[in-house]
Amino acid sequence: MYKLFKKYKIKIALITFIIIFCSTAAYLSAPAKFSHRDIPKIDLSQLYQVATVIDGDTFEVKVDQKLVTVRMLGIDTPETVDPRKPIQCFGKEASDNTKKMLEGQSVTLKTDKTQSILDKYGRVLAYVYLGDGLFVNEFLLKNGYAHEYTYGIPYKMRKDFNKFENDARKNKRGLWGDLCKGITI
Prior knowledge:
- The structure is a single chain.
- A hairpin with a 2-residue loop joins β2 and β3 (66-72).
- The protein has helices at residues 2-29, 91-102, 136-142, 158-170, and strands spanning 48-55, 58-63, 66-72, 75-76, 106-110, 124-130, 147-148.
- It folds into two domains: 1-27; 48-180, CATH 2.40.50.90.
- The longest helix has 28 residues, at 2-29.
- The termini are far apart.
- The strands form two sheets. The protein has a five-stranded mixed barrel with strand order 1-2-3-6-5. Strands 4-7 form a two-stranded antiparallel ribbon.
- The chain is α+β, with helices and mostly antiparallel strands.
- The relative contact order is 0.15.
């Protein structure tokens, strides 16, 4: 065993160095994120440029030179990127629609005093408005790209969001249509 170690000692040291170097470089080059200790100040009159759309209800904007992940409050779209779950019915359509709506756009973020500013993953929870005033959370619900989602404490717009979802269900829009018929959302 010692002879093997002695023979491959330089290769082991080199591989260890490469792993440590790459890990450190990846960590240092990753965009800064906010944590519960460093809650971003969201200016309700500020337009924030959308940097990346992650999926149907989550995207990133720059706030104070830091990349901030935003989770749309009160809605949930079918999953497309959660490694613990398969892609859900209508997930790709919801994600593609959100990308089409938000990529290259500026948005206004509005928080809800009934909710924490950040969720347990450090994402800002917000109602999202395009520069032209379109309420994105409402649009996604009304058109069947999302369903109403309450985590813990009910939020201010819950009653309206339930109405929007029920109307989309009744009219079989989006994920409530025939494509996902019989599939539990």
